[in-house]
Amino acid sequence: ECKGVGARLAAAVIDSILVSVPAGLLYVSVLADIFSGFESMEQAAIAEAAFPALLAFAYYVLFEGWFGGTLGKLILGMRVVKKDGTRAGIGRAFFRNLLRILDFLPFAYLLGIIMVAASSTKQRLGDRIAGTYVVARKSLARR
């Protein structure tokens, strides 16, 4: 059973909290001093914007690749798998999440939401390119 927009958005909210809290603590405790050492405000602004994006990207790729889902997906009983139901792996997770930026632009995941809602397999662009599916963990047990 492929998971739709509602379940995936709920997992994304959990993941956002799980990434934002440690990133914020790290920023306050260490990175603010590092970013203040840049020669220009533009360099500091780019670094400050890039850090959370790279942290989130690494989180999604590593958790989906190694564990079959982010903590949000796992808590809600979902997995990211290949068509045969096996774990997607790091390579597919990398490409799946590399394309997340296209889902995000131009209106905060509107394209991704539309693609999942309109797809019979409930795949966003990254899923289609990487050959991955977000499914209920219980549906894997029935195979």
From TrEMBL:
Keywords: Membrane, Transmembrane, Transmembrane helix. It is found in: Membrane. Residues 4-131 form the RDD domain. The keyword Transmembrane helix applies. The chain crosses the membrane at residues 9-30, 50-76, 97-118. Pfam families: RDD. GO terms for cellular component: membrane. It is a multi-pass membrane protein. This is RDD domain-containing protein. It comes from marine sediment metagenome.
